[in-house]
Amino acid sequence: MTMKLYGSSDSGNCLKTKWVAERMGAVYEWIEISSFKGATRTPEFLAINPAGQVPVAVLSDGRVLAQSNAIMLHLAERSELVPRDAYDRAKMFEWLFWEQYSHEPAIAVRIARKFFLGQSDAELDPALLSKGAAALARMELQLQQTPFLVGDAMTLADIALVAYTRYAHRGGFELRDYPAVKDWVARLESALGLESALPVVE
Ligand SMILES: N[C@@H](CCC(=O)N[C@@H](CS)C(=O)NCC(=O)O)C(=O)O
Q: How close is the Cα of 145 to the center of ligand 1, in Å?
């Protein structure tokens, strides 16, 4: 059976699993599931992922795996995207856990509310803006020192974090305030073969 990746093409959490599958040369079928229209809450979908979220992978032997970072790790096991050195590998995990707790809940949520749901700034929790800005500042600090989040080579940490960072402007964040992050986004987009998502500055 071919591996199936259920995901929404407008979700960074989903796209990062797709990029890793592509890079690993995995054979897979992409099944588009909108995360905005209730499709993740149908009885059929809940039978696959009781958490009611995309992405979710159904592996070629039928086993199921949810959580974007877990799916990426499974796909990239023993590849160059996962450092062999124990400290570097743990640093990669540090960034992956941080992404889910301190970056995605502010930046992805602001993108979803502003860009996809059309909410005004007045309708949004102001803490989202300060939390997102603090996350970008944390990345800027690291990327002024190293070209990738963990040293000199791209790891899953970069792939996880670029997914929403490249669209941060849709959430009302200005990447020009974080020049090292902006350059890193361009580096990652080139490495992953993606068109630039950054706004064109006249
Ligand atoms: N921590 C999860 C987050 C997944 C998530 O938030 N998925 C959203 C789309 S980005 C979703 O499926 N939302 C629909 C819903 O909750 O019903 C991951 O990294 O996979």
A: 32
Query: CATH number for the 3-76 domain, one of 3.40.30.10, 2.120.10.10, 1.10.472.10, 3.30.1340.30?
Result: 3.40.30.10
Distance CA 136, CA 105 (A): 13
CA distance 158 to 140: 13
Q: What's the topology of domain 86-192?
A: Glutathione S-transferase Yfyf (Class Pi); Chain A, domain 2 (1.20.1050)
93-124 pLDDT, tens digit per residue, is: 999 999 999 999 999 999 999 999 999 999 99
pLDDT at 74 over 90: yes
Task: Give SS3 for 193.
Answer: coil
What is the arrangement of strands in the sheet containing 64-66, beginning at the earlier edge strand? Answer: 28-32, 3-7, 56-58, 64-66
Atom 16 (ligand 1): residue with closest C-alpha?
53
Are 3-76 and 86-192 equal in CATH topology? no
pTM beyond 0.85? yes
Distances in Å between the Cα of 1 and the Cα atoms of 25, 61, 62, 63, 76 are 16, 7, 8, 11, 20
Spacing, Cα 85 to ligand 1 middle (Å): 31
Q: What is the mean pLDDT of the chain?
A: 97
